[in-house]
Amino acid sequence: MKQLLPEFRSALLATLVLAVVCCGLYPLVVFSIGQLAFREQANGSLIVDKHGVVRGSKLLGQNFAAEKYFHPRPSAAGNGYDAANSSGSNLGPTSQKLRDTIKERIEAYRKENGLKETDSVPADAVTASGSGLDPHISPESARLQIVRVAVARGLVPATVAALVEQAVERPQLGFLGDPRVNVLRLNLVLDEINISR
Amino acid sequence: MEYFGWLQLIVFVIALAAITKPMGLYLMRVLDAGGKTWFDPVLKPVERLTYRLMGVDSSKEQDWKQYTVAMLLFSLVGCLFTYAILRLQHLLPLNPQAFGPLSAHLAFNTAVSFTTNTNWQSYGGESTLSYFSQMVGLVFHNFVSAAAGIAIAAAVVRGIARHSARTLGNFWVDLVRVTYYLLLPICLVLAVFLVSQGVIQNFKPYTRALTLDWTATQTIAQGPVASQVAIKILGTNGGGFMNANAAHPFENPTPLSNFLQMLSIFSIGSGLTWYLGHMTGNQKHGWAVWITMLLLFLGGILLCWRVEAGGNPIHQQLGVAVAGGNMEGKEVRFGVFNSALFAVVTTDASCGAVNAMHDSFAPLGGFVPLFNMELGEIIFGGVGAGLYGMLVFVVLAVFIAGLMVGRTPEYLGKKIEAYEVKMAMLALLVLSVSILGFAAWAAVSPWGLTGLSNFGPHGLTEILYAYSSGTGNNGSAFAGLNANTLWYNTTLGLAMLIGRFLMIVPIMAMAGSLAQKKVAPLSSGTFPVSGGTFVVLLIGTVLLIGALNFLPVLTLGPVVEHFLMGQGKLF
Predict the structure, then answer these.
(1) Which residue range is the domain that position A19 belongs to?
(2) Same domain (yes/no): A12, A108
(3) CA distance to partner chain A, nearest, from residue B15 (Å)
């Protein structure tokens, strides 16, 4: 017991000293460098419109439902794309609920994009992402939505198709990650060239 | 995409091999109380001041009991520290969302979880914890539980390397040096890089945005995320700032940030094998352990990747394209391959960060992370914990080889006797008793079953995964399980304590005993601890001893579900 007391005291003091260094100094240094060197990223890569209103983050998806917009993936975060409640569905491969949900989504996706009963649907278009905030869809899913968006906006499909191809992000450094389309950026570009609200 | 997957896997393995020796060399200097590093001009005075404030004589070494007691006391104090912060959250600063205090059982579970390097999370970060609770209450343990793990590993290696010795180093010195010289500098660089990729680092209240289609408002969670993500990854802690962890774009925005996070998870564990080789004067032994780990890792990723890329036949029958694979719970920017790779890496190590929801993996895709945890997370492993866990298997492998040829088993010139084998077996048995015992209890109790969100064999897997993750100090989850209840929080808390401390004590006893032994000269009958035979024997020991305990229950969970999925059965 006599031996334990000094060790206990060391444990107590070590906790305080290391807490100051690791939980005070360290995050503040990262904060300072981040705010100085990468201000935009450190604050959430926010999209601010010309009136100074925050319209979202480039990194977080939103729930575009109107016909004239490219639609994001289904989301399990809150009531959909709740950026204060990130979450996946956590439904397993043999879940009846997941199967029924996917069936409904496939039917809806086929209907809104004019696909045939026998056409297969891109996997990412009918499954919820891990975060519920995935800003991306696959290039396949974007291409299938071109005609619908073009019709709703009174544009030539070829114009929209060209925008989609421009929006396809290639793997980083040439090999990392999958090709993808950021739905927010694509819809922003569309709204800029075609202001039919 | 096949081609890109292979390319990424090859680059990952090459990068891992390339950093192993530099990391090992650096670890040698950090773990030597008198070692010199580039940071000495800045950090040496801070280090000395820290010892003075703590009242520690840094020149005095401890025997295995004193070393272990210091570690246990330090963990106890830290655990109470975090418990207090979580319970008093509403009175503390940096709480712009005005979150209330945590319930007693959730605070207990969370404090234990971070103290034991598990980072199991029964809560959703951005909807429960203030910036202060995350930055101080949790990040504190992200640093020190990692440092303590590395310290224990160093003490065990010293026990193997030394002979006729009583002491294994000084816990306080190892703790402070690892934190200052190893973790802090790397985290600083990693965190700033992550910010450049888009990980946030601020103290603003949550931002309200008007959505681009003008129809709704979106509340965007903010916080000091980058500093926490860097150490959660490097220290194989795994506790996310946000509920969705590394799947959240604010924690892991790009494929490059994802790649570096995976590499960081393995970096220290990989470097420690080199440290082992160097310290024991047998570099080939270090590499043999590394190769064993690599082969076990490759087996896991190849199975998991293949299964996930194959997708779900039930959904494909409805019209989901086969080419996309199983995308439920996965992010498009990572795709199937990087989600599978992350899942394997995070459970080979005891990290537990996730960039995809394991609960939604195909049955055999989810089997791989579960099995990795049940092997004891010795494939590169948690920082420190991976190496000392693997050394238990090494001792057993040498023992089995000795039995087979009828000689007294020796490990690096030291006789392995009844005491060492008993301690090694104790460390292993404690894990299986905790995992299987708690899982069996939950599976037949109302409190266990009400938490499930999936049924049939998948429900059993959810329960099994929780206790494997808790006992293995991993922290990843089949997150459909609602574990924020009195019973789950308490039993999982106990499982985490058992998995961490009841494993460390027998291993330290073994190390203390090995340190005292004399070294016998090599003879022609000595079993070599490097080369192909040793690697095969070690893999065999890991798989046999690791798997035998768990095969029956794994058959009832993921294996049965795999066949039922093939028949289109739903629950």
Answers:
(1) 4-39
(2) no
(3) 14
